[in-house]
Write a structure and sequence with these properties.
Blueprint (H helix, E strand, L loop, with lengths): L2 H19 L3 H20 L2 H8 L5 H12 L5 H12 L5 H22 L3 H17 L1 H8 L5 H12 L5 H12 L5 H15 L3 E7 L5 H15 L3 E7 L7 E5 L2 E4 L2 H12 L1
Parallel strand pairs: 1-2
Antiparallel strand pairs: 1-3, 3-4
Helix pairs in contact: 1-5, 1-6, 2-5, 2-6, 3-6, 4-5, 5-6, 6-11, 7-11, 9-10, 10-11
Keywords: ATP synthesis, Cell membrane, CF(1), Hydrogen ion transport, Hydrolase, Ion transport, Membrane, Transport
GO molecular function, one term: proton-transporting ATP synthase activity, rotational mechanism
Family: Belongs to the ATPase delta chain family.
Length: about 270
Amino acid sequence: MKAASREALASVEFKLDQFLASDNAVASAAQAGLDLFEVVDVLDTDRELRVALTDAAVPADTRKSLVQNLFGSKIAPIAAQVIEAAAAEQWSSTRDLVKGLVSLGRRALLRGAEAQGQLGQVEDELFRLSSILKNEAELTQLLSDRTATSARKRGLLASVLYGKVTMFSEALALQAIGRPEQNPIDDVAALADYAAQLQGRTIARVTTAGELNDSQRAALAEKLGKIYGRAMSIHSEVDTSLLGGMAIRVGDEVIDGSTAGKIARLRAKMA
């Protein structure tokens, strides 16, 4: 997103949080998130409407009235307020408006999970799903199939998730799969990142030769928190090829303390 769109999104995010704070956050947030995704589906297929909602030559009140006339009676009040607020902002492109509404829909669902006391659980479920997709090549290939409809891919993933995750994780994952940005693994992992961000945490992706227990994860989170000066979420995976130790990635920084990494560096020095 360009600067104007980032500012517009930040403004509407603040308003969304205010709307939810004054309502029954769990139910309202869940419905608002789902309704925002429905509106995105409409905008995806209607270029004329996208242009009308982002036309800077049209007064903001006129754009807000258009939202109310088209969607006001069909979606939850908070969703309508959010879309009106978005329509009143200045976006760099119609594409940025749609991307902004996707982000707002995700934020609403994550705020609902937070109100339910499940935001940490949702973060963990989404991370574990991204790990499953990484290890299940056939499933990931089916979900990446460009010839398959969004409905078919969502149905496939829903059958995998049913009864195994919270309603928030399921709704977020299904939306991401139905409207891909990169690939299923990275798209779902990005949702886990967003959940961590809303908790004021930064994700450390940790790969170890053996499974970490809860106390080890907690100790590692505390140690990394002191190093980076902020709270950390540990997302860990097992890779026996590391032989021992661990590799840690925080953003673009990689700390490789694995046995395999040490051997590779030693071989490089001896070459």
